[in-house]
Design brief:
Length: about 500
């Protein structure tokens, strides 16, 4: 299957996928793992920038390869791809199966990382068990590994399988525009295997819907800097962050909320507030410029807050810190404006709203304040609402609408997506659960996911479609700590191949 990287058939222009930095693998068994076809493909597609909304290059690369393989490929104007592979010999009369993954990724990085996500590849580190980014960024295993598994299936003509319809979507991490707009009307499959889960011992049988929210409130500033005041930049840092759905129950703390608790001290006057980088990620850092009468006052406030926060988050955020440095003075917010900001942040739905009564320990609905800003004379809060039912999403939306009306703010809702509700009757689920026990000797846990999966859009497009979601062990999605277990990639791929053989 080395033809997937042929220089003669695929021209990536300025993107050289061959001069990659191999992970540091001194042991032969480590090298063997990293040379597995799925991991090798994943490493190669990680050379191609694919931040959500910037999928043209990776879509073209996959499309050109599919054409080279003689497969039927369709690419739409937002870079979704559908690729059809005929059934293997003896499977011609079997019902077709759809495989689906998204080709975009969340691009987050540490403050000390020089990564340019528009041009730079994602380099790998490997410690013998986990693959991580070598440059302090998200890894892109979400959903690059799923893409790599689907490509490996398409590439291997020795596999036994029904007719395959592979759908690669875009913008899953931002707007779900790919799954919402992809045209599957010419496809035939009524069975869908989504390869976007993060635990090989679990099978996803439902996921939530949700919407992005942008809350905008005018704020007022004083006309000048009060006499005798100096400016300081306060930064809350060291939180773990994580996926705004899958990690919302882990108690990792939201840097924006913690920063507000610092700013509410009466000896500080706030000039500006900013924090978070993505509504889909729990904020790891937030900062503010404040005015105070002297440095000792600021240091004392920070030391007290740091002691409180470190006690509260000793288990979930052992590296939590509050950093202070001199800043440029500017007129602060009026007292009335700051009170409105504090009210907005405190009363805005954030974190778990309801737990799921059908699946023990699962969050049913939540909201995540992912970004805050006071630029341009307005407070802007950007969040992500999630719920297992349309009704619970609507209920949170009503709360936000009421808060906005109370504070004189405006609200915009965007990038909405539909829930994928659990079905009691599923041939795919029954096959997968039984097969996993046969192959690995343990039970496969069935659960619904408190995160948005594209499956909901496919269920809506094709009522009655039998859908499951599977994938290898991945952790810390949407944060620079993201990692994937190498051996689990191999297990997941072997499991997928055997499922296709039995369908």
């Amino acid at each position: 299957m080395r033809d997937i990287y042929s220089r003669d058939t695929i021209n990536l222009g300025d993107i050289d996928i061959f001069n990659h930095k191999d992970a540091d693998a001194s042991k032969q068994e480590d090298k063997d793992i990293l040379n597995h076809e799925v991991i090798d493909i994943f490493r190669h597609i990680s050379r191609i920038p694919r931040e959500s909304g910037n999928e043209k290059a990776i879509s073209n690369w996959i499309g050109k390869w599919a054409e080279y393989k003689g497969l039927k490929v369709t690419q739409d104007d937002i870079w979704n791809l559908t690729i059809c592979k005929p059934a293997s010999k003896g499977y011609e009369d079997h019902a077709p199966v759809m495989l689906q993954a998204h080709i975009d990724m969340v691009c987050e990085k540490n403050n000390d990382s020089n990564q340019n996500f528009d041009t730079d590849p994602i380099e790998f580190d490997f410690d013998g068990e986990w693959i991580t980014s070598a440059t302090g960024t998200t890894l892109g295993a979400d959903n690059g590994v799923g893409v790599a598994e689907a490509l490996a299936v398409l590439a291997d003509d020795s596999l036994e399988h029904p007719p395959l319809e592979v759908v690669f979507t875009v913008q899953e991490e931002t707007t779900f525009a790919g799954a919402e707009n992809v045209d599957i009307s010419e496809l035939k499959a009524m069975r869908l295997i989504n390869i976007d889960h993060a635990n090989e011992r679990e099978i996803i049988v439902g996921s939530c819907g949700g919407t992005g929210v942008r809350f905008v409130m005018p704020i007022e500033f004083e006309e000048e800097v009060p006499e005798g005041m100096t400016a300081w930049r306060i930064r809350v840092t060291g939180l773990m962050g994580g996926h705004s759905g899958e990690d919302i129950h882990r108690g990792r703390g939201n840097a924006i909320n913690l920063l507000l608790r610092v700013l509410e001290n009466s000896n500080l006057q706030t000039v500006s507030i900013s924090g978070g980088t993505n509504r889909l990620a729990i904020p790891r850092e937030a900062e503010a410029v404040v005015l105070a009468a002297d440095e000792d006052t600021v240091r004392s406030i920070i030391d007290n807050a740091k002691a409180v926060f470190r006690r509260e988050y000793s288990g979930a955020a052992p590296d939590l810190d509050i950093i202070c440095e001199e800043a440029e003075a500017a007129p602060p917010l009026t007292d009335a404006a700051f009170i409105k900001i504090a009210a907005a942040v405190r009363f805005y739905p954030n974190g778990i709203v309801n737990m799921n009564g059908s699946f023990d320990g699962l969050v049913e609905s939540s909201d995540n304040i992912g970004i805050i800003s006071t630029e341009g004379g307005v407070l802007t809060i950007t969040s992500e609402v999630r719920g297992a039912y349309r009704s619970t999403v609507d209920d949170i939306v009503k709360t936000i609408d009421l808060l906005a009306a109370t504070l004189g703010a405006g609200v915009e809702y965007f990038a909405a997506y539909v829930p994928w509700e659990f079905s009691a009757d599923s041939e795919l689920r029954n096959l997968a659960v039984g097969l996993y026990k046969e192959m690995f000797g343990s039970e496969m846990k069935q659960l619904a996911l408190h995160a948005g999966l594209e499956c909901g859009f496919f269920a809506e497009k094709r009522p009655g479609m039998d859908i499951i979601s599977i994938g290898p062990d991945c952790e810390y999605f949407h944060s620079p700590r993201e990692r994937v277990r190498a051996a689990s990639i191999i297990n997941s791929y072997n499991f997928l191949k055997e499922m296709l053989r039995r369908l």
